[in-house]
From TrEMBL:
Pfam families assigned: PAP2
Name the record gives this protein: Phosphatase PAP2 family protein
Segments passing through the bilayer: 12-29, 64-80, 87-104, 124-144, 156-178, 184-202
Glycoprotein among keywords: no
InterPro entries for this protein: PAP2/HPO, PAP2/HPO_sf
Domain of life: Bacteria
Swiss-Prot/TrEMBL keywords: Membrane, Transmembrane, Transmembrane helix
Domain Phosphatidic acid phosphatase type 2/haloperoxidase: 87-199
Length: 216
């Protein structure tokens, strides 16, 4: 119970930060101009060719069609191995990402940055669907690796790679010009809040299903 309350306290704090940021974005976006423009100009620079080629390719990893395919394949592998709670956790977070993005974009209705876009995107800017998806989906995999992989070095390496992946995806959305830094920051905070809230529930379900022999 204490562990659950600690996770939920962290989730509540992260959600509060997200709501404060969202309030500023909705009603006082000019207050974030300095923060956003500084990071945008620093990250994008003069758009070097190699970096542009890298980010314009890597940003598509979280495109809807692509992420549905590779998450679906992972869920199939998990189901084959009888890791049913893991499959539910991963797939559920992908669906939840879509629902949250659809709802919140229409609440905040923030226009996309008025700078050169290197990829085509439609709709509103906040929150960033790619950033939320990378935090929730890759974050789910980080949790699973911590539970399933016994070899410590391999576990840390894979978790580090996934963390790096989140960072790269998030940075790519700013670099290609379709999101403000505050968009991706808010999305990561929201994703962290969701994971902190979900983890005790998922972990309990996983324990119960393993204890009763419903899964491995």
């Amino acid at each position: 119970m204490k562990n659950k309350q600690e996770h939920w306290a962290k989730a509540s704090f992260a959600l509060l930060i997200f709501m404060i940021l969202g309030y500023v974005i909705r009603f006082y976006p000019q207050q974030l101009t300095g923060f956003d423009s500084t990071i945008q100009s620093t990250l994008r620079g003069d758009l070097p060719v190699a970096l542009t080629a890298f980010f314009t390719k890597v940003t598509h990893v979280m495109d809807t069609k692509i992420i549905v395919i590779w998450v679906g394949l992972l869920m199939a592998v998990f189901a084959y191995k009888k890791w049913y709670s893991e499959a539910l956790f991963l797939g559920g977070n992908l669906v939840l990402t879509g629902l949250l993005v659809l709802l919140l974009k229409n609440i905040y209705q923030r226009p996309r940055p008025s700078i050169l876009h290197l990829v085509e995107e439609k709709g509103f800017s906040f929150p960033s669907g790619h950033s939320l998806a990378s935090t929730l989906v890759l974050g789910s995999l980080i949790i699973m690796i911590g539970q399933r992989l016994k070899h410590q070095i391999a576990r840390y390496v894979l978790q580090g790679v996934l963390l790096l992946g989140i960072g790269i995806i998030v940075a790519s959305r700013v670099y290609v010009g379709v999101h403000y830094p505050s968009d991706v920051l808010g999305s990561m905070i929201l994703g962290l809040a969701v994971l902190q809230f979900e983890y005790p529930l998922y972990d309990r379900l996983r324990f119960q299903w393993r204890f009763t022999g419903k899964q491995k």
